[in-house]
Amino acid sequence: MRVSTKSADQAGLHIPKLFLAAVPVTYGVPGVPRRRILERQAVPQDQLDVALAEPMHSDARNPCDALLHIPKVALLFMTSGKMPHERLWRLWVKQAKALVPLDAVRRYAATSSRPGAPLDPARLQQLAQACAARQTAAGELPVSQLDRQFLFTFYIHAAPDVPGFNASSMFAGSLIPHRTHARRQEHSLIDAERLLLAEALRDPLNQRFLLLSDTTLPLYGPALVYQQAMAETLSRMDACTYHPEIPGNLDRWDAGMEGPHFKMHHWRKTSMWFSMPRKHAEVIAREVEINAAFQQFCKKRLVHPLTNSTASCSSCEHYPAIVMAVLGLEHETTCNGDGNTYVDWNIDIKYGHPRTFKNKDVNDSLVAVARTGYYCTLQETEEAIRSASQQFVNARSLPSPANPAAAALPADPPPPYPALGANCSLFIRKMPAFVERTAYRVLGRHVRGLPWEASVEEGEEGQKLVKYMKSRTVINSLLEAATSGLQAL
Predict the structure, then answer these.
(1) How far apart, in whole angstroms, are the C-alpha atoms of residue 203 and residue 62?
(2) Cα separation, 167 vs 420, whole angstroms
(3) Distance between CA atoms of 477 and 375, rounded to whole angstroms?
């Protein structure tokens, strides 16, 4: 497989030299006419190279990053040009305002590298001054809502003819400069993903990359999402399993795709809504050979001439996982195809779409189902919510000349964050624009980092749901205990 040779050493990728082919590859298999990969692509490789070149220095963006070097979670949005749930995202980001990881503060202010070393008051004051006052470089206007927090970066892709967001929008400045016309069931979706990754990779502090949509909303507050993302080392995708038994899966395979490194047994299917570490983002953004094969052969085509049935090769459900499989990085994925986002497929599916939620669907019960699914329990999520909030300190509460009465930091670090399983969803979709008010009312209660009982709607139905979720937690605990006992026999 060919990866952009310019960047392999820069990215620190340990890729065998055979994947760094210096010439275009000719694809073909016996009995199939050999077809040469076109050099011209929908998004030229040099456009990606431009986006990847000359990384910006986040340290220079604000004094707090310059001192703490806080790793960031990059939220990548695939959109039609609008962000209909800005109110909820604004509320969500507000919960992260001035939060800084407690371990980063301790590392910076410690008088020595010895565990439990006392903190230097002068360095704490310096940190408080750097992280509390946030202004633009010119010092004339207040910075945006996004720049008042230190944990996340936002990147939005829309068609090239879509204008930027209004200056009053929290998303002003988040629209990436290099864009393409992305269409469903076309490889242009992968082009857009790669452009998002390329732009986010320019910031060296971005260490985790999550792909979302304009109809995706958070199930938890920013403290948990950040801790969970940073606690995970694997990519949330299934690059592990070849699934010939899934109906229609191999109908998307085209024999012309086969090349020196990419074979039929590498075919994978997974959710497009991935979460991945920086090293995997580098691979996906810079890969050349498989991308070229998909550009030419991953298309809608006739698969049964008698029934006139067709198969649409949706690159977004295959390409990232296949790249990982071809590179032998399957073990660095979760082997779970659900990604980071909950969707409801328990309906009569039409044209491959999951449920589009309506106002009547959006309630506390939906949040409970989305959070727990088949794999997670209320007890696990509650413990994670409590622990996540303990991992941060508000920069405005650090001791400083302007705040001499600030409480001292805890003498001991908090217990480690108990990471949720990779099957536990962090987001939910599809929430269209017409459910904005309902989604804001319901999910707005659940993204504040409060316990479940304090988040559900008051009233009889809310109390019934609390009791049901507690009983389900007890049942799950009994089942786990019984399973462990049987395994021990």
Answers:
(1) 13
(2) 37
(3) 12
Q: Which two tokens stand for residue 466?
A: 């609390």
Count other C-beta atoms under 10 Å from residue 28's C-beta. Answer: 15
Residue 379 CB partners (closer than 8 Å, separation 6+): 473, 476, 477
Q: Tell whether the model's pLDDT for residue 305 goes beyond 70.
A: no
What's at 145, amino acid-wise?
Answer: Q
In this predicted structure, what is the pLDDT of residue 34?
Answer: 28
Say if residue 6 is preceded by a cis peptide, omega within 30 of 0: no
For residue 152, pLDDT over 50 is answered with yes
By the 10 Å C-beta count (0-12 exposed, 13-18 middle, 19+ buried), 141 is classed as exposed
Q: Are 341 and 273 in contact (CB under 8 A)?
A: yes
What are the pLDDT digits (tens) for 168-214? 999 999 999 999 998 887 888 999 999 999 999 999 999 999 999 99
Q: What is the pLDDT of residue 58?
A: 62
Write down the pTM of the prediction: 0.84
317, 272 Cβ separation under 8 angstroms = yes
Q: Tell me what the mean pLDDT of segment 397-411 comes to.
A: 73
| pLDDT at 220 (0 to 100) | 97
What are the φ and ψ backbone dihedral angles of 433, each rounded to 5 degrees? Answer: -60, -30
Round to whole Å and give the CA distance between 274 and 200.
15
Greatest CA separation for the chain: 80
